[in-house]
UniProtKB/TrEMBL annotation:
CDD domains linked to this entry: OAT_like (cd00610)
Organism for this UniProt entry: Kumtagia ephedrae
Cofactor (UniProt): pyridoxal 5'-phosphate
Family per record: Belongs to the class-III pyridoxal-phosphate-dependent aminotransferase family.
Tagged with keyword Transferase: yes
Protein name: Aspartate aminotransferase family protein
EC number(s) reported in the record: 2.6.1.18
GO annotation (BP), single: biotin biosynthetic process
InterPro entries documented for this protein: Aminotrans_3 (IPR005814), Aminotrans_3_PPA_site (IPR049704), PyrdxlP-dep_Trfase (IPR015424), PyrdxlP-dep_Trfase_major (IPR015421), PyrdxlP-dep_Trfase_small (IPR015422)
UniProt entry tagged with the keyword Hydrolase: no
GO molecular function, one term: pyridoxal phosphate binding
Sorted UniProt keywords: Aminotransferase, Pyridoxal phosphate, Transferase
Amino acid sequence: MSNRLKVAPNDLSAFWMPFTANRQFKQAPRMFVASKDMHYTTSDGRKVLDGTAGLWCVNAGHCRPKITEAIQAQAAELDYAPAFQMGHPAVFELSNRLVDVAPAGMEHVFYTNSGSESVETALKMAIAYHRAKGDGARTRLIGRERGYHGVNFGGISVGGIVNNRKMFGSLLTGVDHLPHTHLPEKNAFTRGEPEHGAELANELERIVALHDASTIAAVIVEPVAGSTGVLIPPKGYLQKLREICTKHGILLIFDEVITGFGRLGTPFAADYFGVQPDIITTAKGVTNGVIPMGAVFATKQIHDAFMTGPEHLIEFFHGYTYSGNPIACAAALGTLDTYKEEGLLTRGAELAPYWEDALHSLKGEPHVIDIRNIGLIGAIELAPIAGQPTKRAFSAFLKAYERGALIRTTGDIIALSPPLIITKGQINELIDHIREVLRMID
Ligand SMILES: Cc1ncc(COP(=O)(O)O)c(C=O)c1O
C-alpha cells in the first residue's frame, strides 16, 4: 500500500503551513473549496468576498474562463520544455506581450517562479551587470527598513521586517538599509501620497558617503510597501531616489510583485509615479496567481552588457527548471488577454476615488489610528492591545471571515487589495463588514 493511502483524509498535521499560526488553524480550519470572480466558497458552503485578491495576486478575479482554457489547452499540447538551451513559442510570445505593457525602457524579461525568486534574480543580475561592465567592486545592495522582498536569503537580507530576519543567522553581507518612510505623526489619515518624508530619500547620500558609490550595485525598494502594512511613498520620494541612484551609477530596482499589473490603476507603479527603474521584479498578477510564475524586466542597457564574448557561451549563469514553463506562459497569456479585454490594468484609476472615500469612512471607528490608500490598495491601522501586538488585527481577520469577507492583516494593520473587477456595491459590502467587525472586537 502506498504511503499516500495510509494518510487519513481529514488529518491536518502533516502539512506545515507557511506564514500561518499552524496550531490555531488546525483547531478551527478555514478551508476554501471553490472560487468564482469576487468570491470564495468555504467547505461549509458559505460565500466569502475576496478583499485581498487571494494574496495580492488574483487581479482579474477568480476562475476566469480565458485563463482556465489557456491552461487546459497548453497542458494537452506541450506540457514541459527544457528551460535551458531550448525554447517554445509561448514563452517568446509572452515576452513580447509583457514588454508591450511594461514601462518604457523595459525591453527584456527573465522568468522565475515566484516573487522571491524574482528578487534573487534581480539582485544577482545587478551585481553581475556591473561586473560584466568591468565594475566588479560594485557588490553592495541597499534595501529599506520595513521592506518585503520575499523569503529567500537575498530578499530577507535587503528586506527590513524583523520577524523575517531574526531567526536566520547573519544573512548576506554587504547590505545596508534606507530608513522606512512611515511617519504616522505627520501623515496619518493621508489620502494618497503623503506630504511629508521625501527628504528620507537623501539618506541614500549618507549611505553612499559611508560605503562609497563605487561599492554599491543597486537599491531595491517596493514603490508602495505592501506586506509591511501599505506604506505609501511620500510625494517626490521615489523621484529623489532615482536622481541619487543615477548620479552615482547605482541601479534602481523596483519590486513590483504587488504593484505590477494594475494594482495602482496604471499597469505598473513606475508608470504611476513617472519614475523609471533599471530593473522591475514581478510575479503574482502576471498569471493572475493561478500558476506560479515571476518575471523580471530589465533595460536594454542591462541585457546588452551581458551579450559579449564567444556566442556559444552562456551569458548569465542563472535560471530555474521552470523558468518560462509552457503552462505558466499559457496562464500569463490568458491573463493578459483578460486584462486587455476588460481594461483591468487601468480600471483601478476609475475606482480609486470611490475606494478612497469608502476606506476613509472608517475614520473614527473603534481602534482605528490611521487609514492609507492608493490605487486599489488600502490599509486600516489599529491600535495594538497593550502587550499583545497583532492580536487585535488577527481577531478582526477571524471575525471578518466568519461574516463573509477575506481581509489580510500584518501586525495590527488590515491590508486590502481586492481583485480589480470589484464593483462599487462590493466595495461598500467589504467596508461595511470591516466597520461591523471593528465595533465587535476588543
Ligand atoms: C514586494 C514583494 N516582493 C516579493 C514577494 C515574494 O513573493 P512570493 O511570495 O511569490 O515569493 C512579495 C510577496 O508578497 C512581495 O509583496
